[in-house]
Specification:
Number of strands: 11
Number of helices: 13
Largest sheet: 7 strands, mixed
Number of domains: 2
Helix content: 40-55%
Distance between the termini: 27 Å
CATH superfamily of the largest domain: Spore Coat Polysaccharide Biosynthesis Protein SpsA, Chain A
CATH class of the largest domain: Alpha Beta
Oligomer: single chain
Length: 342
Amino acid sequence: MATVDPLSSPSEASALSESPSASAGRSGDSPPSTSVTVVIAAYQAESTLDAALASVLGQTTPPSKVVVVDDGSTDATSEVADRWTSRLPLQVLHQTNEGAASASHLGIMASDTELIALLDADDVWMPDHLETLIRTRNGMPDAIACALGMRWIPGSDMWRGRPAPLPLPAHQLEGILLDNFGCGAALFPKKLYEQAGGFRGGFPIGYDWDLWIRMIRAGGAIVRPSHTTFLYRMSSSSLTQGARDFTGAEAVLVAAEREARSEEEIRWARAGLARQPTTKRRIRAANALVDAYEAARSGSTAEAREKARQSLSGTRSVATRGLAVMVWPQAAVAVRDRLNRR
């Protein structure tokens, strides 16, 4: 998980670091032709999977294959996926509930294409998502294209968060050990995935961060497009939004230190571990501010003020907005919503 401020409004977002190929995919170009498998790990996704698959169907560059892995759902996830087999080159796989890392790995190993594109079962792609990520890789065989997304709470506004700066390829191993700048909506070569050892279990969260570290160590480099191409749904039932125990981050870095190939890597992993208490405090403060806004919007003034008080230990931006909610909850929500609409 990238350590970003999830409350950043468009007016507060800083300029994004872009790859040299970020301008690729401009209108007027012909869509690229590349074999891609879309892999969707789905658990209890009956209410969101239709929208995710519809966004795949609408791509300007259609995938060669789509694999949905039902991770032991007890709802109608599989039935929803089956309804799309006549409209997409779709394969539905099943496993007992072993987690998203295991489900994603099963889907990837069932593919026979050059590239893999990951899609969360509760997210939605813009029509140019695949085309943009393919162009962003710009023929670089070991590039991992990480999409930029708009954060979205259904029933509320959308906003773009601030991604961590993207280091140059020569400094990406150090950078990703200090701060996860990867993403969930990524496009990468299957060959590099296999060389790195693929997704693996053992991490409460951050299994994708663990993969990006090993992919970069294996010679990969992360690149980014110049514009957002997907909607990242946030809700209380979302896997990443709901995971508020950030002990998984330490597990990723402990593994990275154990598997380091140089003294430099060991130092970087240890430096990343030393930063975790501050990172966790800031993320918890940002989550408290999300709760404060929602409580204020529902009219629970006392709860809004208490959650806002908990946000004061966050970054200066989070603490400033938390103070505003403490002083005048409804007005603070109105100002935030107005800024997001801009």
